Structures are given as structure tokens and as C-alpha cells.
Amino acid sequence: MPNSRKVLVTGGAGYIGSHTVVSLAQADYQPVILDNYSNSSPQVIDGLENILGEKVIHYRADCCDQQEVLKILKQEQISGAIHFAASKAVGESVTMPLHYYYNNLNSLVVLLKSMNQLAITNFVFSSSCTVYGQPDELPVTEETAPKPAESPYGNTKKIGEDIIHDVVNSKVGLKAVSLRYFNPIGAHSSAKIGELPIGAPSNLIPFITQTAAGIREKITIFGDDYQTVDGTCVRDYIHVVDLAQAHVRALDYLQEQSTDNFYEVFNLGTGSGTTVMEVVQTFERVTGVKLNYEIGPRRQGDVEQIYASVEKASSVLNWQASKGLDEALAAAWKWQQSLSKHYD
Ligand code: NAD
Ligand code: WQD
User: Fold this and answer.
1) Which in 8, 212, 251, 298 has the greatest CB count within 10 A?
2) Element (H, E) at 136
3) 113, pLDDT greater than 90
4) How far is residue 187's CA from residue 18's CA, in Å, rounded to a whole number?
């Protein structure tokens, strides 16, 4: 008999997954981590156990390995899954498309097949605002038409959503939610878990914190000639702890539904846009650290501006962001400063 509180968290040692494990445990779910540590460290488990004051169930396994996935689902009597496991570097996906299609799509198909075999119904998928491309209208709602993907990574999210849609339509009993994250930033307030980029980061915030810490000489702002208030790109930066909480609400919501064969998509953002220059200035104000930055050319593939309409998540999931940019940047900086204490 499946345990209604036990949830498989694939990619649970990763950035968003680890914060979600904390929120799940604190909401009396029992998270079971499945991770191959291809983009994370087993030391994250220590950080999690430290925060929670209890053991966390975890397996080193590849989500593309159906035998392993089935074994864990059965052994742990899982009743639902949150699927974070994926490769996520947009630039790398352009040079290694087959790796991205293999890992991101196989892991999804293997997990859905295994769940189907064991009649496990509740499924939450990590999607992305990347499916919207450069939208024609702002803020983007869940009804805003997706654009053709700009990268193989983005395409795996679009195809991933299509796969889930088709499986639900086939009436095998799946209840699914896709969460389209905007730009997750920040870290847990304990600074025991956070974003752990392997190699040079490509995202803005780890680049800023590494520059502030003296690991990088300077940060380049990619373009200041966009049609925005200060010429730099606009994004919707969402605190990762708020994001984690939304996964708890998504699971609660799936459990509340009496009908099977059910699929909903939600934007997860704050609902407001911030420019890159505003992020840099806010970081300097909040931390008191001056950033060495320069203006460079536009980065290929960047959208000019995007931010979310979050009305659906608010009205249906009863979720909204509670933390602002100041708090997120302060937490990211505290995490950067404590990194060497916790990680090799
Ligand atoms: P992350 O790389 O920190 O976490 C992903 C985790 O999955 C890592 O721990 C990695 O080791 C693991 N993993 C990858 N492939 C695996 C496999 N085949 N089997 C087992 N484990 C595997 O990334 P994240 O930022 O936490 O992102 C989580 C999810 O959210 C991803 O699906 C990502 O595409 C999506 N997403 C992320 C962002 C973002 O900006 N961080 C934005 C939108 C969507
Ligand atoms: C944010 C802003 C850059 C670095 C990516 C993925 C997207 C989603 C979220 C997964 C942009 C600017 C950045 C730097 C800069 N991920 N920037 N200098 O590109 O909005 O979204 O992560 O699904 O799919 O594409 O995030 O953090 O890379 O950039 O000026 O050194 O910061 O141009 O405007 P992005 P980002």
C-alpha cells in the first residue's frame, strides 16, 4: 500500500530540489531523494540533515535506469513524484544536444512508465519560462502561446510538457502539474544549502556572488541597449525557498483532486520584472560590497524582457511569493561566503 506522504524527489540533491526537500519534510511529507550527483554533491545530504535534524532517505541512482527507478518506487512505497532531475545549462545544450535529449527526455519517460506500472498517480514536473521565448505580451500567463524553443534544453522542457499532456490524455490515471519557474535565486537562510554551480556559472546571481567574493575579476552585463527602463534585460527573480513551497502546494493540490487524468500548468514567479542593473545595484546596497562590472555586448539568445502573471498559482494553489529581491540576494551572498565551510 503506497504511503500517501512519501514522495520521490528526482534531482533532490540539486539546487531547487534540495530546498524543496526541506519544505516537504517541514510539511510532514517524507521526501525520498533519487540523484546521480551529475550536477550536485552528496554533501548536500549532510546540509539537509543538518537543517532538518533528521535522516533524509536518499539513493544514488540514474533516473534513466528503469530497473533502479522501479526498485526504489516499490521499496519506498511512493505515492507521488516531483521530477527535477535534468541537465540545465542552456549553452551546453547547444553543443551537446544528444546528451540533453537523452537525459531530460529519457528520465521523464522512464519515471512516467515506472509510475504507470505501479499505479502511482501524482506527478509534478519542473518546467521553465523558457517555453515562452520572447513573449508578445507581458506579463505572460499560462495561456500565452509558447514560442519555438531557442535551445535544445528549452526544447526538452517543451517536449516534456507535451509528453505529460499526451500521457494524461491516454487516460492511464495520471494527475500531473507542470511548474514553469521564472528565475530562481537565493538560498536557504541557514546557508547550509544553495546553488552549487560546477565550473563557471552561466546564471547571473552566482556570477555576481563569485565576483563579489573575488573568485572572478568582474561581471559583464550583457547589453544596455534594450527597450527597458535602463537598457538592461528584465527578468522575474523568485526566491528558491518560495519556489520550494509551491511544490508542497502543488502536491497538496494533486491529493485534493478526486478525478484522475488531470493536467495543469502554473507559472511560478513574483509577478514583477527587475533589470540586470537593478539586481547589481540591489546586491551592492544589501551586502555593502562594490561589484566590479562592465557593460558588454548582448548575449546571443537572450530575451529582452519576461515576467510572470502569477494569478493562477495564487487563486488555484493558494501560493504566492513572500520574499523580495533584497532577502534573496542577501541569502545568496551568505551562502557564497559559507560555501568553503560546507563543500570541498
Ligand atoms: P540542478 O542541476 O541543481 O539539479 C538537478 C539535479 O538532478 C542535480 O542534482 C543532478 O545531479 C540531478 N540529475 C541530473 N540528471 C539526472 C539523472 N539522469 N538521474 C538522477 N539525477 C540526475 O538544477 P536545478 O536548478 O535545481 O533545476 C532543477 C530542475 O528545474 C531542472 O529540471 C531544471 O531544468 C528546472 N529549471 C531550473 C531553472 C533554474 O534556473 N535553476 C529554471 C527553470 C527550470
Ligand atoms: C539573467 C539575466 C542575462 C549573466 C536562464 C535560462 C532559462 C531558465 C532560467 C532554466 C539575463 C544577464 C547573466 C552574466 C548578465 N533556466 N546576465 N551577465 O538567461 O534569464 O534564464 O535561467 O530553465 O531557461 O535561459 O538567466 O541568470 O543566465 O540571466 O548580464 O554574467 O542576467 O543577460 O538578462 P536567463 P541568467
Assistant:
1) 8
2) none
3) yes
4) 10
pLDDT tens digits, one per residue of 207-234: 999 999 999 999 999 999 999 999 999 9
Angle at 210 between CA 335 and CA 156, to 5 degrees: 85
Q: Name which residue sits closest to atom 27 of ligand 2, judged by CA.
A: 203
SS3 label, residue 235: strand
Helix (H, G, I), strand (E, B) or coil at 12: coil
Q: Which of 73, 100, 77, 96 is nearest to 87 (CA)?
A: 100
Distances (CA, A) of 96 to 63, 109, 309: 19, 20, 33
Q: Measured from the CB, is residue 42 less than 6 Å from ligand 1? A: no
Query: Counting atoms of ligand 1 from 1, which one is nearest the CA of 37?
Result: 11
Task: Describe the chain by its helix, strand, coil percentages, rounded to 5.
Answer: 40, 20, 40
- Cell match 518560495: residue? 242
Q: Vertex 45, ends 337 and 10: CA angle to 5°? A: 115
Domain ranges of the chain: 6-182+240-269+310-317
Q: What is the largest CA-CA distance in the chain?
A: 59
DSSP state of 154: H
The CATH homologous superfamily for domain 6-182+240-269+310-317 is NAD(P)-binding Rossmann-like Domain (3.40.50.720)
Q: Which residues does the annotation mark as catalytic? A: 153
Q: What is the Cα–Cα distance from 237 to 283, expressed in whole angstroms?
A: 13
Q: Which atom of ligand 2 is nearest to the CA of 157?
A: 23
67 CB-near residues (< 8 Å, 6+ apart): none
5-28 pLDDT, tens digit per residue, is: 999 999 999 999 999 999 999 999
CA of 86 to the centre of ligand 1 (A): 5
The phi and psi torsions of 95 (rounded to 5 degrees) equal -90, -20
The amino acid sitting at 71 is K
Nearest to 265 by CA among 183, 145, 152: 145
The pTM score is 0.98
